[in-house]
User: Which sequence fits this backbone?
């Protein structure tokens, strides 16, 4: 039995308990996925990049892959509750050193994903204000949103969930309205060819499958809020599986509706000619004001996603600080709201610095900040999901803990095979995803940077094993590694690899 050192006090190291039900967890995961952004931007981009109409089938394939992953992932979440979900699962499954490596990748990827959204957010706000006759630079709009998100990030988690619930309800209503309108104005009936396997051939289609995965990023976040969930053994699994199902339905129906409205023969050319095709169709079918409404809803969608990713990133930083894997002050929570206030403020400072730097350097907020950074972060998160799938298998190989063979062996094995295949396609065709020439520096640099981050994290984990064994023993054990008893005696944590 190893012990951990004295850590932040119980008030500082514990997140709020029993605050979030299934629907609250759904609000965080669905808004992180930014369904309207994916449909209005990602789907249209995929039609243009892939040159194929098999986008609905692509989303179906990815949904099945992630559903298989979620079976084992949520089963493991019944036995491990930690705000640093991927980090903790990999640490407890594969080993502590790989877990710290995963922590470095996860914190960086989630941080980058959240920051990237400020580029799209600022540009969309600039466009909406311009329609109203107001002139404001994208970075000014981004900083206003940054201030609001930073403030909400320090509030109680259930307040954040209520804000997201309102924004999400409106967003999904608009998506369904646009989709129904597209089907009602179908050019040639229901285009069944969109679900044909023959539409997924070629290099570009492989890249399209990889890009489809990024539309689901956020589905895994209910486990991050497991410590704050009500009846976590059931609510986390329900929210995660429901997120995959809801997103799959929305993405398949919406992308199929665009094909129906334009026609299978013309949708690729229309997507290439008009990046705002979804809003253009809405304006033509429902009236010009609906195109503006769609743009406003895109603004609220991205804002909600930025808030959701802010909360996820803050909890990862909090988890690392609480276990002393990162500076201990990151593991402090607010005595009043039990929110991870110092981690949240840290994320706010970093994102604000990036916005200001982008503005000062005159870099493109859409291409260089939003698209490049979010796509790159997606690669890192996909690698984490695949690694976590392996961790599920290893964890239950030692002890099935009374869980079913399907949840601990069969589904996780299928998930590993499928996710490694998608990850391979993502890295192989990353230049296509970024829209740059094959052989360019950026598609090679991004995977290398994540590999270097993982190696540095593994090196830090190896140092903790030798130099700070009391900290190393608590890696992945969450509150057990941080809380002290009323007599100030450290809590024991079982040793391991």
Assistant:
């Amino acid at each position: 039995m190893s012990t951990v050192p004295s850590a932040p006090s119980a008030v500082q190291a514990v997140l709020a308990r029993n605050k979030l039900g299934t629907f609250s967890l759904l609000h965080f995961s669905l808004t992180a996925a930014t369904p309207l952004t994916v449909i209005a931007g990602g789907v249209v981009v995929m039609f243009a990049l892939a040159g194929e109409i098999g986008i609905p089938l692509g989303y179906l394939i990815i949904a099945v892959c992630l559903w298989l992953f979620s079976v084992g992932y949520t089963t493991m979440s019944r036995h491990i509750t930690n705000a640093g979900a991927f980090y903790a699962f990999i640490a407890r499954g594969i080993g502590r050193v790989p877990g710290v490596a995963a922590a470095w990748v996860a914190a960086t990827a989630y941080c980058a994903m959240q920051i990237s959204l400020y580029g799209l957010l600022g540009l969309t706000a600039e466009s909406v204000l311009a329609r109203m006759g107001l002139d404001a630079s994208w970075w000014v709009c981004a900083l206003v949103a940054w201030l609001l998100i930073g403030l909400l990030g320090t509030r109680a988690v259930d307040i954040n969930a209520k804000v997201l619930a309102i924004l999400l309800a409106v967003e999904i209503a608009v998506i369904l309205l646009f989709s129904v309108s597209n089907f009602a104005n179908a050019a040639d009936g229901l285009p069944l060819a969109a679900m044909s396997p023959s539409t997924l051939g070629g290099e570009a289609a492989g890249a399209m499958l990889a890009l489809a995965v990024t539309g689901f990023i956020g589905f895994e976040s209910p486990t991050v809020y497991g410590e704050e969930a009500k009846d976590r053994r059931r609510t986390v699994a329900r929210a995660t599986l429901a997120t995959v199902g809801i997103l799959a339905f929305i993405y398949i129906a919406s992308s199929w509706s665009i094909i129906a409205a334009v026609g299978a023969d013309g949708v690729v050319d229309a997507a290439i000619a008009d990046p705002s095709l979804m809003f253009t169709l809405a304006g033509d079918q429902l009236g010009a004001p609906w195109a503006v409404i769609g743009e406003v809803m895109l603004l609220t969608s991205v804002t909600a996603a930025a808030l959701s990713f802010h909360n996820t990133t803050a909890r990862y930083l909090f988890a690392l600080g609480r276990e002393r894997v990162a500076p201990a002050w990151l593991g402090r929570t607010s005595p009043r709201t039990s929110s991870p206030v110092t981690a949240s403020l840290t994320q706010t400072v970093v994102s604000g610095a990036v916005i200001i730097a982008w503005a000062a350097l005159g870099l493109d907020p859409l291409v260089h900040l939003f698209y490049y950074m979010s796509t790159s972060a997606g690669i890192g998160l996909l690698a984490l999901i695949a690694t976590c799938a392996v961790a599920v298998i290893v964890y239950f190989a030692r002890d099935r803990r009374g869980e079913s063979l399907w949840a601990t062996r069969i589904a996780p094995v299928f998930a590993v095979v499928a996710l490694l295949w998608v990850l391979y396609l993502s890295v192989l065709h990353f230049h296509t995803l970024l829209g740059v020439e094959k052989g360019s520096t950026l598609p090679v640099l991004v995977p290398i940077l994540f590999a270097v981050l993982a190696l540095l994290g593994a090196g830090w984990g190896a140092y903790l094993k030798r130099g700070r064994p009391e900290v190393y023993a608590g890696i992945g054990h969450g509150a057990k590694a941080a809380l002290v008893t009323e007599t100030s005696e450290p809590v024991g944590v079982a040793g391991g690899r």
